[in-house]
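retry 2 of 3: previous attempt timed out while embedding protoporphyrin IX containing FE. Reduced batch size to 1 and resubmitted. Inputs unchanged:
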Amino acid sequence: MENLLKIVSKPDNVAIIIMMVMVGFFVFFAFFQALKNDRKKASAKEEKNKLEKEKIHTWPYLARKEFLVAILVVVILLAWSIFVDAPLEEHSNPNLTPNPAKAPWYFLGLQELLVYFDPWIAGAIIPLLIIAGLMLIPYIDINPRGNGYFTFAERKFEILIFCFGFLVLWIFLIIIGVFMRGPGWLWFWPWQEWDPSRVVAEINVDLTQLIGVNSRSTPGFLIGGSVIILYFSVGMIMLYLYLRKKKPNLLHKLGLTRYLISSFLLWSMIGIAIKIIMKLTLNIKYIWVTPWFNI
Amino acid sequence: MRNIFKYITETQLWKSIFRHDYEDTPRNRALQILGNVFLHLHPARITRLGVKLKHTWCMGGITFFLFIILTVTGVLLMFYYRPTVADAYWDMKDLEFTVRFGLLLRNIHRWAGHLMVITIMLHMFRVFMTGSYKPPREFNWVLGVVLLVLTLLLSFTGYLLPWDQLGFWAITVGTNMARAAPVIGHEGPLGEIIGTTVYNDLRFALLGGSQVGANALLRAYVWHCIGIPIIAIVFMAVHFWRVRKDGGISGPL
Ligand code: HEM
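retry 2 succeeded.
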C-alpha cells in the first residue's frame, strides 16, 4: 500500500491519475449520448436535427462559452500548479542508471510492448502502424452513417475496434507501465514493495520449441514463418469469405485495396493482443526466428 | 459621464481602432467576429449543435488554448534557461529558489504540457465517436493525426531540458527505440545492407552523437522551442481553416 501511495503521489503521475479520470468520464459520456440517441424515435431525431441545424450568432453564443472554458482551464491549471510542484530529480548522471528507467508516461504503452516484442517492432513498426492506421481511418471506413452525431447502433464494429485500440492497447498498457512495472521491468502489484534484487526465473521458449523443433534450425525457421504468413493470409481470406457470404454489398463497396489494408491492420491489432497473451501465459518469446530479425 | 463616453467613442483615434459600435444588433454581432482578427477564425454564425458543449466537449478549443498558455509560459522560461550541460540543471534550481514565481511558472508549463497530451487524445476520441472524420472531413482528420504526433514530440523534447535524471533517462530510453528502427537504426534488422552504424543511424541524427549529451540537449532545445512549434502552428492554421471549409462543425446531415 505504501508503495502505491509512493507511485501515485509522484508529481508526474498525478497527470496520469487525471488522465484516467478524464478518459473514464468521457468514455462514459460518449457512450451515454450514443445510446441515448439510438433510443430516440426517427421523428424525434428529425425534429431535433432541424432545430440544431439552425444558425445562431457566434457572438455571444459561442464566444462566451469559449471564454468561460478558458477561465476554467486557467483556474484548474493554477490550482494544480500551486499544489503540485514539477519534479526535478538529481543532476543527470550517465553512469547511474535508475531502475526502472521509464520513458515519459504517454510512451509507456510502447515501452510495455518491449516485453512482448523486439525493439524494432515495439519501437518502430508498431508506432508507424499506429500513425498510418489512424490516418487511414477516414479512407477505409466507408460506412456513411453516424456522420456528425453520437451513435453506437449505426457503427458498432468501427467503434468497438477503435475503443479496443485506444482503451486496451494504448491507455491500459500505459497504466500497466506506470503502476505495475518496477525494477527490472518486472511485474509488481501496487501493494508490493519494489524489491530491486528480485529476479524471476522465467524460461522463455520459442513457439516451435513447444512442438520440439529448434527455432534456430531450418525446420524451425520454416514452421515459424508459415505460422506468421498463414495467420495473416488465412485470417484475411476467411474474413473475406465471411463477408462475401454475409455482407456482399459491403465488400463490393469496400473494394479490394481497402479490404486488404483494413483487414491487415485489423489482424495486426489482434495479433499484438495474441502475442501479449501468449507471452504472459506460455512464456513464448518468438514465433519466428530468422537470421535477420525475430518476431 | 455619457457625454464623455460619447466624446471618446467619436474621436478619430477610437474609430480607427474599433470599426463598429456596440449596440446589440445582428449586424454588430456579426461584425464583432468579422472585425477581430483573432475571433474571425470563427464563422459569424454557427449551428446550434456546434455551440453545444456536449457535442464538441470544447476539447479542440482547450487543446489550442493550452498551446497558447504553453507558448506564453515557454517564452518566459526561455529568459531564465540556457541549454548547456553546465547551466541547464542549475537554471532550473534558480527558477525554483531565486526567480520570483519561477517555480509557479515552471509548474504551469509542465502541467499544461501534460494536460495538452490528455486533451488532444480526448479530442481525437470525440471526433471519432461523432464520426466527424467522415466525408468531407477526411483530410482534416489526417492533419489532426500529424498534430497529435507533433504534440507528443513537443512534450518529449521538453522532457530532457531540465537535465535531471528523470529527463535524461526518459530520453535515453525513448531514443533507444530509434536505434532499433529497421534499416536506419544500427541495432535494427537489415541495417547492414546500407552500412548503418552507431555513428550514422537515426539515433545519431536525433541526438547529434551516440549518447545523450551536450548536442542532444541543444537539439532538444531548438526543436522544442523553435522547430516543432513553428511546424505545429502551420498545421493548426490549416486545421482550423479546414474546419470551416469542410462545412463547419459536423452535425447530422
Ligand atoms: C494541436 C492539436 C489540435 C488542435 C489545437 C485542434 C483544434 C480543433 C478545434 C478547435 C476544432 C473545432 C471543434 C472542437 O473544438 O472540437 C477541431 C476540430 C476537428 N479536429 Fe482538431 N485539433 C487538434 C488535433 C486533432 C487531432 C489529433 C485530430 C484527429 C486525429 C483532429 C481532428 C479534427 C477533426 C476531424 C475536426 C472536425 C470536427 C467536427 O467538425 O466536428 N484534431 N480541432
